[in-house]
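#struct-help
A.M.: can someone run this one for me? Single chain, 39 residues.
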Amino acid sequence: MKKNNVKVKPFSALETEDVGQKSQKIFSIRNIVCKKKYL
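D.P.: on it. Structure tokens below:
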């Protein structure tokens, strides 16, 4: 179990970072689209 946890933790950390970056990109794209619509 301990060995599995050590392997899983860095992988999940990388995954959450990747998901965070993707969500930030989507959020910024939505902001740009909203600004264009209102302008």
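A.M.: thanks! The chain has one domain: 1-39.
D.P.: also worth noting: The chain is about 95% helix and 0% strand.
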